[in-house]
Amino acid sequence: MNKTDRLLAIILELERNGMQRAEDLAATFETSVRTIYRDVQALSEAGVPIVGAPGQGYSLIEGYFLPPVSFTAEEAVTLLIGINFVEQQFDAEYRNNAGESRRKIEAVLPEGVRLASKSIRDGMKLITNTRRLDDSHAETFGILREAIHSRHTVSMEYAAVTPGNPADARTTREIDPYGLVFVNGGWSLVAWCHLRQAIRHFRINRIQSLKILNEAFKIPEDFNLSTYKPFYDRNIRVRVLISPSHIAKAKDSHYFYTESMEEQEDGLLITLKVREPEEVLDWVLGWGSGALVLEPDILRNRVKEEVKKMIERY
Predict the structure, then answer these.
(1) Are strands 169-183 and 152-160 parallel, antiparallel or unpaired?
(2) N- or C-end of the chain: fewer Cβ atoms within 10 A?
(3) pLDDT at position 56, please?
(4) Fold exhibited by the domain 149-227
């Protein structure tokens, strides 16, 4: 990043996040603290009203703002594609906000940039691998957003899927919702479960009913959703052999849990990493006779159980 770009970025950073230490700005822009000191001096000499508080950092005088920024066609396309995702995977309120944001962005674009961005977008289409939230799940999503924002405990009825149990095991729980995560094509809730006295993950589509309670909670200081890793800490190895006739399809599938693929004489060996073998059961069954689970044994046995049930059903 050259100096001119960095100076503008520093103003935007202060405008967005308020007071920032020189050390924080140096880390953000991957430069030295001494360089930040020089940049702040240059901005002050150029008339930008930056104030410094000893031991606290720098901030902009209240009321200062930059003139409206301009977008290139590529930048506008990036924002508008993001809006497309929001419209597909968020609740009605956010979908409406996304539509309004699109209209505002397009309204401020110069005609040349607007036409260029439209031309680029006409050659692209975003299709996610899951359908849009239905009305009931969208309502749940909205209630959870409100509870997360207000930091209030919720009571919910949850249908947990347990191995070997054809029926949903429904439980009523009180939880402190920490955040929502879009992972593997669907929304999950990260929350403190009062029943289990631990952080747990809940699939939005399995929440049967939901109510915000009057009880408030505080998120632990050491918890940060952006750095929370259990969704990605997958320690169980699954090895599946895909038959030769399904190799091309398997290579194109880009399955979330896949770690590696290795072609062999008898097929394609896929290694996956999961938190629980149950997570890939439906995927394995979806290949029919085209997939053979090599390990672990617990998944092999679950596949056998499901196949047996299918035979009995037919």
Answers:
(1) antiparallel
(2) C
(3) 86
(4) SH3 type barrels. (2.30.30)
Going through 168-280 in order, the beta strands assigned E by DSSP cover 169-183, 186-193, 198-203, 207-216, 236-242, 258-264, 267-274
Rounded CA separation 307/222 (Å): 45
* pLDDT at 18 (0 to 100): 83
pLDDT for 72-111, tens place per residue? Answer: 888 888 888 888 888 878 877 888 888 888 887 877 777 8
Task: List the one residue out of 277, 288, 275 whose CA is nearest residue 239.
Answer: 277
β-strand 169-183 against 186-193: which pairing, if any? antiparallel
> What are the pLDDT digits (tens) for 275-309?
888 889 989 999 999 999 999 999 999 999 999 99
* Domain 236-313 in CATH 2.60.40: no
C-beta separation of 293 from 284 below 8 A: yes
Neighbour tally for 77: CB within 10 Å: 19
Phi, psi of 213 (to 5 degrees): -95, 170
Cα–Cα distance, 117 to 239 (Å, whole number) = 44
- What global pTM score does this model have? 0.58
Number of helices (H), then strands (E), in the chain: 10, 11
Q: Write the DSSP symbol of residue 31.
A: S
Dihedral angle, C-alpha 254, 256, 262, 264, nearest 10 °: -80
d(CA 77, CA 124): 10
Give the span between the Cα atoms of 140 and 196, in whole angstroms.
22
Burial class (CB in 10 A: 0-12, 13-18, 19+), 275: middle
- Give the pLDDT confidence score for residue 178 in this predicted structure: 95
Domain ranges of the chain: 3-60, 73-121, 149-227, 236-313
